Amino acid sequence: MATAEQIKMLIQAHYEKNEERFKTVLLQLAAYEAKKGHYSFARDIRELLEKAKTKTDKIIPFNKELSDLLITDISEKRLIELVVSKDIKSRIERILLEFWQRDKLKKHGMLNRRKILLAGHPGTGKTLTASVLAGETKLPLCTIVMDKVVTKYLGETSVKLRQIFDFINENQAVYLFDEFDTIGSERSLDNDVGEMRRILNSFLQFIEQDNSESIIVAATNNPKLLDHALFRRFDDVIYYKLPDKDQIQRLIKNKIGKYRPSNFSLNKIVENATQLSHADISKACNDAVKEAILLDLEYISEELLLRMISERIEAYKRGES
Predict the structure, then answer these.
(1) How far is CA 58 from the centre of its chain?
(2) Helix%, strand%, coil% for the chain, nearest 5
(3) Structural domains for the chain
(4) pLDDT tens digits, residue range 278-298?
(5) Euclidean distance between CA atoms 214 and 99, whole angstroms
């Protein structure tokens, strides 16, 4: 095992936030354990260090001006986790295929589709799609914080947008503009509609001039509010709907997994869940699984899942009243 001196050096490097020193001591520790004949332990240390290095390398450091405007993350989401229609899945697969073979397309004077607009009901998988694109391409996921970008001060929002697009050009990642209608429509905030028009024109200019290697995803729950000029700037526009019965069934099976008994009937549950979004159904399934865990239940009963779905429906009814 590690010597007292090695443990002391690890602790010291950690508290001094000296990452390079910490890695060096870990490698020394791995070599020490290998000499002792503890080959499996030494290999585990090196593998953990390599995984940590890979994940750290994907995190994009922001300068002070951008730290409030962007949130960066590493996505582990995969396409298999996205329960959507066959048409939507095939279009996402096409985006990924073109990304993976973008060099082949370039040889023929073609560019892969990188600018994607996702529109539709809340909770239908738009944000998850951005995470899947990041996970499948192994790119960082950067979410633009829209309420920090849009301000009431004349010209400030356009300046922030320029900073973001300069950053997009320099740092390859998947960039998500969530609640995109905040800048894509003509709705006024505290300022006049003329300022919103200037912001929209700035975005149109920046996205048209963008020639980066990044994937830009804009998501909106209100496509009817968007300016028509925006649609021509995107390589793909994908519309999301509430899940159909087949999608609901697949989603429930994915979410409750081992807690679904062999004789579990989903017919009544699916019928009751038809007015809910993907996100609401997922939350209802998670609630049912948590209750099963807390009550030490081996399986989720039909009654339990129906109750959780009813709670979601009732929450919306009360919100509308």
Answers:
(1) 15
(2) 60, 10, 30
(3) 4-57 (no CATH), 70-240 (3.40.50.300), 245-320 (1.10.8.60)
(4) 999 999 999 999 999 999 999
(5) 10
